[in-house]
Amino acid sequence: MIFGRSERGKPPVEPVTLKILVAGGFGVGKTTLVGAVSEIRPLRTEELLTEAGRPVDDLSGVESKHTTTVAMDFGRITLREDLVLYLFGTPGQERFWFMWDELSEGALGAVVLADTRRLEDCFAAVDYFERRSIPFLVGVNCFEGAPRYPVEDVRQALDLDEGVPLLMCDARDRESVKEALIGVVEHAMAYAADRRQAVTG
Amino acid sequence: MSADGQGRSHWFDDEAGPVVRPYAMTRGRTSSQGQHRLDLIAVVVAEPHADDAEADHMLSPEHVDIVELCREDPQSVAELAAELDLPIGVVRVLVGDLVDAEFVHVNRPVPPAELPDESILRDVINGLRAL
């Protein structure tokens, strides 16, 4: 189905997998962005909220828990037979932050999507990646009809560190999304180089 | 998940239903012993002899589904969960069982900080450009 059908007796290719997160407020276009570049229709994977932190075999107390499902949409880009990039849309609501920790572990980097009409919706994501030193860039999703502001104004409104790239993008447009993802990887490379220098120098 | 006999045996109360039912497949276990949490992009690969999975009566239908999907092509944990419509936690436990029974092995993703050099990241950039 995905990585090229394996002939019997011939070992299947076991790809290296990487992930980039797509964060931002509810309805900012995360799934649209994933869908614009994914080779598969964005898939939905779910986790039950009550599972978090439960010890093995412990089902006591389950009966009094409220159950909630956290859904994450994700897409896949097969860059080479042996190299696959996954894009994960982070759950929009802040109460699902425990999922973010799991998602961001080992992530190459993140795109924080922002909408100039509701800029404050992405503050939480910016904070989150800053605090955990995960390389990210901000993509301002240019919605039709939304006011356009100069890049510097948006930067200031978000109080972004100088090193954090910010670009205008269109989550529906494949080329624009490719640009944003390349930006994340480049930023992650520069970030890693800086860190190495800080350690050795 | 199928709505077969398993789903109808209401040994739990209604309110607990959505929590307990998927975990009935794992016999109540919410994590796999002796294993780290499997990353969503960890790749599950069927072992060459995994053809015997159907004949193994210790395995549930969901175990067999996982082996079959992975036999076609290696699958990430996230894809297995989406494909089988199971919560990620359930898939983790089931995959853990299959690893113990040596039907599959799991390739854990390399954290970017531990990549030996930048060449993979350059490959990612080039791959994205070529899309």
Keywords:
heterodimer; A: 201 residues; alpha/beta; Rossmann fold; seven-stranded mixed beta sheet; 7 strands; 30% helix; B: mainly alpha; three-stranded antiparallel beta sheet; 6 helices
Summary of the model, kept short:
Chain A has 201 residues and is an alpha/beta fold.
Molecular structure report:
The complex is a heterodimer of chains A (about 200) and B (about 130). Chain A has a single domain, classed as P-loop containing nucleotide triphosphate hydrolases (Rossmann fold). In chain A, helix 1 (about 30-35) packs across helix 5 (about 175-200). Chain A has about 200 residues and is α/β, with parallel strands linked by helices. Chain A is globular. Chain A has helices at about 30-35, 95-105, 125-130, 150-160, 175-200; strands spanning about 15-25, 45-50, 70-80, 85-90, 110-115, 135-140, 165-170. Chain A has a 7-stranded mixed β-sheet with strand order 2-3-4-1-5-6-7, with helices on both faces. Chain A has 5 helices and 7 strands, in the order βαβββαβαβαβα. With about 130 residues, chain B is mainly alpha-helical. Chain B has one domain (about 5-130). Chain B has helices at about 5-10, 15-25, 60-70, 75-85, 90-100, 120-130, and strands spanning about 45, 75, 105. Chain B has a 3-stranded antiparallel β-sheet. In chain B, helix 3 (about 60-70) packs across helix 5. The radius of gyration of chain B is 17 Å and the shape is elongated. Chains A and B meet through strand 1, strand 2, strand 3, strand 4 and helix 5 of A and helix 2, strand 1, strand 2, helix 4 and helix 6 of B.
Order of strands in the sheet with most strands of chain B: 2-1-3
Please state the CA-atom Rg of chain A, rounded to the nearest Å.
19 Å
- Count of helical segments of chain B? 6
How are the strands ordered across the major sheet of chain A? 2-3-4-1-5-6-7
- Global shape of chain B: elongated
SSE string of chain A: EHEEEHEHEHEH
The number of distinct helices of chain A, counting runs of at least 4 residues, comes to: 5
Per CATH, what is the topology of chain A? Rossmann fold
Name the structural class of chain A: alpha/beta
Number of domains of chain B: 1
Greatest interface (CB-CB under 8 A), with counts per chain: A-B, 63 and 54 residues
CATH architecture type of chain A:
3-Layer(aba) Sandwich
What is the total number of structural domains of chain A?
1
How many strand units of chain A?
A: 7
